[in-house]
Amino acid sequence: MYKVLIADDEVLDLEGMRLFIPWTELGLEVVAAVNNGFDAYEVLKDGEIDILVTDVHMPSMSGLELARKAQETESCSGLRVIFVSGYQDFHYVKQALSLRAYSYVLKPMDDSELVDALVHVTKELDEVSRKQEEERQWREAAKRTAPRYQPLPQTDTVEPGKHTKLILEVTAYMKEHLNRSLTLKEVADRFAFSPNYLGLMFKEEMGVGFSEYVITMRMERAGELLKDPKVKIYEVADQVGYRYMPYFSRQFKETFGMTPIEFRRHR
What we know:
Layout: E1 2-7, H1 11-20, E2 28-34, H2 37-44, E3 51-55, H3 63-71, E4 80-85, H4 90-98, E5 103-106, H5 111-145, H6 164-176, H7 184-190, H8 195-206, H9 210-226, H10 233-239, H11 245-256, H12 260-265
Parallel strand pairs: 1-2, 1-3, 3-4, 4-5
Helix pairs in contact: 2-3
């Protein structure tokens, strides 16, 4: 059940809301009913309130001030506010709107108006909760199915060896040419080595094989490019050397446990 705080300096109005609104039927629980803004704020600071129903005009701290203070409090970030007021003055309504009030119900209050406002705000909270639950389930599923992705060893932190300078040149060349074919033979020819010998040196220095390094390098770059929504997914694939989209998507999912579309959606 969502938790509600009621604040109104008029005792009859406060008790009327507490007793005559069918809170339980609406899936709501009135945690506290207070008659001033200071007490209301103390309750709000605990961060357990989902809906604040407050009179606009209260002495010392008005409902508008209360809502404003709540907005500035981190624990109240998801709070929904419904104002009730005997004032139809545009000045109050305008301030309420500026505070992103969910509803503004005039006194003398028809209970059905407040009930309607509560029904709508509850539906909105349900929607938010459902989305958060879906997101949580998706993340848990992704954690269960995703491979343990290991970032590439950084070339500037590799333990110096007898072939370190050469391999740094090789990885720099690979990074500059990710958008084209990068076979061990092609790179070995570029640096005047046999493929077998270069492959052995590469594995010795980097701790992973040449092909595995190329794939992970491409995927890391693809992940960076996907963060920019203006870049189309097929453009990302092309920039990291894939001309066949299904193969790119399959390789990406094997690396990150999700498709490029899912990756972009959850970044």
